[in-house]
Amino acid sequence: MTRILVVDDDRDILFFVKLILENEGINVLCAENGSQALELLEENAFAAMITDQNMPLMDGFELARRARRLRPDIVVFMGTGHIYPGIQAKAQSVGIRQIFGKPFNFPHLFAALNEILPGGNLDSTG
What we know:
The chain has helices spanning 11-23, 34-43, 60-70, 87-93, 106-116, and strands at 3-7, 27-31, 48-52, 75-80, 96-101. The chain is α/β, with parallel strands linked by helices.
């Protein structure tokens, strides 16, 4: 079973994203901050990580940089409520594959996950 790490300091978002992804048959582990995420990355393999941009202590960019150092093959996606000029270039510079606005557009997220997951059969039609 495919495993994805979801990182967000908002527990409601973690719960909702986990529920949606598990409904699609994905094994999801959650972390409420970058430090928890790095601990999970040290102990587990993940196909992908979906991280929030704005979190206390360590933002999504720093987490992505450290995660890719620990797990060079992990695909990183980032969600943010604040898309601004230059964010894509900044994200790419630390190994983030794609940025999604919040609230998440799940069909877009599923389409991105289908590109990297074995079988790629998530329901991206909504």
